[in-house]
Design brief:
Elements: H1 7-30, H2 41-46, H3 48-61, E1 66-70, E2 73-77, E3 87-94, E4 103-109, E5 115-118, E6 125-135, E7 138-148
Antiparallel strand pairs: 1-2, 2-5, 3-4, 3-6, 6-7
Length: 149
């Protein structure tokens, strides 16, 4: 007597297993959390040349601030680049792993005077710090990575 499990059934089981596997992968992929870096990416892309100019000006004038992390505080010191004009800007803390931990801190300071940033949102983890500031008529921008422990 012949076996009812011939090569036709084996091919059908192979295709059926493949379909089940693909359906499982589609289900898993549709349940993944997808977060964009920004929701206004198109508008920001149009303004990107001014962003590149700010980075070039920061690099050419050696205006990068120095920072230190102490606990859940970030201490920052801006060098004197354009004389004694005050510094006004914004620091954005971007957490790549969780968009709910992103926040911005506006600041104003005199050159060579330290800025201390302490925020209840500054929790354990790694942040990309995006510093955008203006001193006199010059705009500057730099980025850095900070890890809060």
């Amino acid at each position: 007597m012949e076996s009812k499990f011939n090569w036709g059934w084996k091919i059908a089981l192979l295709y059926g297993g493949f379909v089940c596997f693909m359906l499982m992968m589609v289900f898993k992929a549709s349940n993944q959390k997808v977060e964009l870096v920004t929701t206004k990416y198109y508008e920001e892309e149009l303004q990107y040349q001014s962003h590149i100019d700010k980075i070039a000006k920061t690099d050419s004038s050696h205006a990068r601030p120095d920072w230190q992390v102490k606990g859940n505080q970030v201490a920052m010191l801006f060098p004197e680049t354009n004389g004694k004009e005050s510094i006004v800007g914004n620091i954005r803390f971007y957490c790549p792993s969780d968009e709910h931990r992103d926040f911005s801190v506006p600041f104003s300071a005199a050159p060579s005077s330290p800025i201390s940033i302490s925020n209840e949102k500054l929790r354990h983890g790694t942040y990309k710090m995006q510093i955008d500031w203006k001193q006199g008529a010059s705009d500057f921008y730099t980025e850095g990575i900070v890890t809060i422990q």
